[in-house]
Structure formats: C-alpha cells, structure tokens
Amino acid sequence: MAKRFLAYIAIAIIIAFIMFPFIWIILTSLKFPVEIFSYPPTFIPRNPTLHAYKTILSKPDPEKVTEMPIMANLLNSSVVAMSTMFASVTIGSCAAYGFARHKTKLAITIFVAILLMRTIPRITIVIPLYLMMRDVGLLNTKLAVIITHITVTFPIVMFLMYSFFQDVPVELEEAARVDGCSRLGTFLRIILPLSAPGLAVASILAFLLSYNEFLFALVLLSNAETWTLPVALGSFIQQYKIAWDFLSAAGTIAIIPAVAAAFYLQKYIIKGLALGAVKG
Q1: Distance from CA of residue 53 to its chain's centroid?
Q2: What number does CATH give the domain 70-279?
Q3: Which span out of 28-37, 202-211, 262-271 was modeled with the highest average pLDDT?
Q4: How far is it, in rounded angstroms, from Cα 88 to Cα 154?
Q5: Would you say the pTM of this structure is higher than 0.90?
Q6: Rounded to a whole number, what is the distance in angstroms from the first to the last CA of the chain?
Q7: E strands, 86-221, where?
C-alpha cells in the first residue's frame, strides 16, 4: 500500500510538472499587462479578465499588435494539418505495405533513403522549396505548405506503419486472396483494419507535426490572411515588446485542436503504444 501511495504521489508530481506551463499560459491570458509584469509575479490573476481574448477575436489592439485574423489563422492551420495528415497516412501506409511485403535490396535502399530525408535540416531545403513553389505559382497558398509538410511527416508515417504491417501474418492475406479478394481489397479490408492502432498513432503525429510547423509556413506564406497559427503567434513577438497577454490568449486557443484530436484518438494511441512496447 505504501509503495502504491508513493507511486501515485510521484505520478501526481510528474503530471503537475508537465501541466504547469499550460496552466501558466492560461492564467497569464486572464491577466492585465500591468499584472503580468508585476514583481513579485502572481500565479492566480487578481482581477481576471477576458480582454485579451476579446481583442484578438474581435477588435484590433490600438497599438496594432493584434491586427490579424486569429480565427482565420486557426482555420488555416487546421486545414493544412488535416490535409497533411490524410495525405501522409495514405501515401505512407501504401509505401510501408509495399516495403514490408517486398524486401528486395532495391526496396531496402529506397526505404533507408526516405528515412534519411528526415535527418536533413529543414533550413537547408527551405530555399529550394521556395524557388520550386514560386516557379509553379503556389506561393502564399495552403497547397504549398501542405506539400512541404508532407516531406516532413511522410517518412515518420511510413516508418511507423512499416513496423505494424510486419506483424500482420501473411497467411491472412493469402487466405483472402484464395477467397477471391484482390491485393488492393486485401490491403483495404484486412491489413488496414488490423493496423488501426498504428494508423491512429501515425495520424496524430502527422497532425501535430504539421500543426506546429513554423519555418516552411513563415517562408511560403506572406499574407496575414493565409498565415498558419504558429506564424501568427510569432508576430506577437516584436522588436521592442512582447504582447504576453495576447500571445498567451492565442496560445491557449491554439492548444484546443491538438487536445481535441488527442482525446478523440486516445484509445487507439494507448493501444498502439502498448503494442509497440510488446513488440520491443
């Protein structure tokens, strides 16, 4: 009993340590600027206010710090992240299945080459990507950001799904083929349902990677109306000041889609991580 109690105490401390930054951001968003910069700092707002939320969601700040469409930026990030997730999971799953079932030297070489793409620093490829998007007329569009985000998320999705597909018995596919199911039908009706936990884990990782990506969106998008949320949040950090109240309020709003996606897929994520631990 004592060991279990100590374990619960340790877990509570870890959770509090992890949650503290999020709680601090939320509480900071409810403070006036005077209280934010007061010393000693306050944890609980003395006079809670929704001024920051009202300002960034409706009226621009008099100092023009928040003249940006936050909700439009949130929608842009959600659309880009969802599109990237669906594209990466679709392409990555097909590629992973092919590599898992055809282990030739050429296939292994291509597989390793794709994984090595993930090790290339993004800053080294952002200029070539910018020039490519400029030449095809995709600058300042969501499609340009989605394409570049796929280059980041696709290798991870492929690697994760490759591990899951390896654990699906080939005999199940052979039985389906004997019953008259095509290879594509076998993949859609047998392999993917059995790999649902892996798909959930790959989906949430692809979504979060795209949703939080900053560099590509900053370079490829030049209009505040087309900015994704990370770029919009960065605009609160100016040369001579940081609008902590507005930044905290916008950051709190930015957390909502990620938390919602995690809660929606949590049972699949936990199951997938458990399966990964068993495989290890």
Answers
A1: 24
A2: 1.10.3720.10
A3: 202-211
A4: 5
A5: no
A6: 30
A7: none
